[in-house]
Design goal:
3-stranded antiparallel beta sheet; mainly beta; 1 helix
């Protein structure tokens, strides 16, 4: 990863660890993602980062997670 131009302090780093978790709301209409990771800069410093989000699920994606008949790979960007 790399900071955008003009950001201070500027750095470049490689991701050395990452994991994510996906949990579904009881209504099965939304899922929640929780991502955590660690990167190491080119100067040897470690950076911990994370992301949390809520995803509205479309019918084609629900079929995959529920292993329903007719499930198939869905296009990039579907949730």
């Amino acid at each position: 990863m790399e900071t955008v131009e003009g950001f201070s302090p500027a750095f470049k780093a490689n991701i050395v660890f990452g994991a994510d978790w996906l949990s579904f709301d009881p209504d099965q209409e939304h899922a929640r993602i929780n991502l955590k990771g660690v990167a190491k800069t080119d100067k040897g410093h470690s950076i911990s980062f994370g992301y949390k989000g809520v995803i509205a699920l479309v019918e084609d994606v629900k079929k995959v997670f529920n292993m329903q008949p007719g499930m198939a790979t869905v296009p990039f960007g579907y949730a």
